[in-house]
Amino acid sequence: MSGTTTAAAALRRRAAGAGANRWVVLVVLCASLLLVAVDATVLHVAVPAVTEDLKPGGIELLWIVDVYPLVCASLLILFGTLGDRVGRRRVLLLGYTLFGVASGLAALADSAQVLIVARALLGVGGAMIMPATLSILRQVFPDRRERALAIGIWSAVAAVGAAVGPLLGGFLLEHFWWGSVFLVNIPLMLVSLPVGRLLLPESKGDGKGPWDVVGALMAAAGLFGVVLGVKRLGGGESVGSLLTVLPLVVGAALLVGFVRRQRRRTYPLVDLRMFARPAFSTSVGCIVLAMLALVGLELIAAQYLQLVLGLSPLETGLRLLPLTFAAMAAGLAGARMLRRFGPRRMVCAGFCLTAFAVVLLTGLGRTDDCALMLSGFVLLGFGLETTLFGAYESMLSEAPQDQAGGAAAIGETSYQLGAGIGIALLGTVMNAAYAPGLSGVPGVSAAASSSAGHSLGEAYEVAARLGGSAGAALRHAARDAFVHGLHVTLLVSAGLLLLGAVMALRLPRVMQCESGPVELPAPRDAAESRVSV
């Protein structure tokens, strides 16, 4: 780096970090991420306990698990761009408050409906927190080399949260009721709120033009409708059902209208010209595909460990630790790998390594194979984090600083949208492979087989009611069918990951560290600025 470039970078760092050391800011932002990451995974090991206590139906259980990413994905663009307008720190602190209140409501929920509402409010709080943390990080680390290191630390903390969530949830379930898994958010919020108010710098965009309230609501409603429709399909609803088709059609229409509205406005809510940059659009696509392929696997893995292998919630959390520790290692090494290999090779290799790990895990069966599970989880965690790190860093570096909130919101929307659709898609694949294995079990009626086909947990309940040889036969068949469904789901995920590896070939070969501001290309025609939502 030349002396002029170094001096310019130093000036940008001083301007961005005025009033607060940028590394102290990173610590506070990582605490914010930890708050959301713990909540995203802590429920996974508690699903069997929630099912036993609240007795939710199949659709209600899907809502309990899926409403958080659904609501969060719907509102990320709204709150990300609002932060650019009114202040990112302000939105972040409001998110802390709402997250804490919603956690208390979830902990005290006495019905599935109340828990669904609480999880939805947690989604609103998460939508306020996530884009704010990334956009503030983009603001205080304008130098790309430092920003890559900061993103690596930030993503390693996300892995810590993913590790702490199941482990902490398992520990709490060993000693307390399932609602205690939500109470862990409250102390984190009580610490983060005053510390964030004291240490975080306020930052905004350029403030040109009015904030597009109508556009924000169109984006939120459109994303909600699309993900809701896909979620209902994942819950086994008919493709021709009005309650499935209507949200999909209305949501898609609203998103098309949102895109057209942004193209016409002088000061758009989201500058869609960012998608004309191959690195930005490809990074977004890679994030969606990575989450689409993998997010449902963690939930299925928790059920496999508890219901097939018979492990306790605490033992389940311990078994998932190698995955998240490997992800931490990848996050900390990410900046160095990005500089050495470049975004294209890094993301492509991450996809391929993750696909290999997923195929390796198809060797899991009805008996416990610790060595195979350890190897698969370590490769899975390292490969996934390598992929997401490279994609997030490339996406943020392609966005101009005054659009940091909108760019972060797009990245987080991609993450949450991929997660929501992934749970529905992989849940559909799992159910399609699992249910046929329960037909024709000796001594079990068609009605009992149909009920057992909803989930492995329900199959065990039906088997307990039947008792005797029929109950034992149903339990054995359900376990075998679940393992078969797990293998099919893993193979589908591997195919999606390989598709992501091909997509990653459009990323830049080398990590470019420009000293000047990022300029967006002016589209020559409508086709050049087309965006896929």
UniProtKB/TrEMBL annotation:
**PROSITE patterns to which the protein is assigned, alphabetical:** MFS
Q: Where is the Major facilitator superfamily (MFS) profile domain?
A: 25-512
Q: Which domain of life is it from?
A: Bacteria
Please name one Pfam family that this protein belongs to: MFS_1
UniProt entry tagged with the keyword Membrane: yes
GO MF term set: transmembrane transporter activity
What membrane topology does this protein have? Multi-pass membrane protein
Task: Supply the alphabetized keyword list.
Answer: Antibiotic resistance, Cell membrane, Membrane, Transmembrane, Transmembrane helix, Transport
Q: Which residues cross the membrane?
A: 23-49, 61-79, 91-109, 115-137, 149-169, 175-199, 211-230, 242-259, 280-305, 317-335, 347-365, 371-392, 413-434, 481-505
Q: Name one GO cellular component term.
A: plasma membrane
Q: Which GO terms describe its biological process?
A: response to antibiotic
**The keyword DNA-binding appears for this protein:** no
Cellular localization per UniProt? Cell membrane
PANTHER family cross-referenced by the UniProt entry: MAJOR FACILITATOR SUPERFAMILY MULTIDRUG TRANSPORTER MFSC, METHYL VIOLOGEN RESISTANCE PROTEIN SMVA
The molecule here is called MFS transporter
Organism whose genome encodes this protein: Streptomyces hawaiiensis
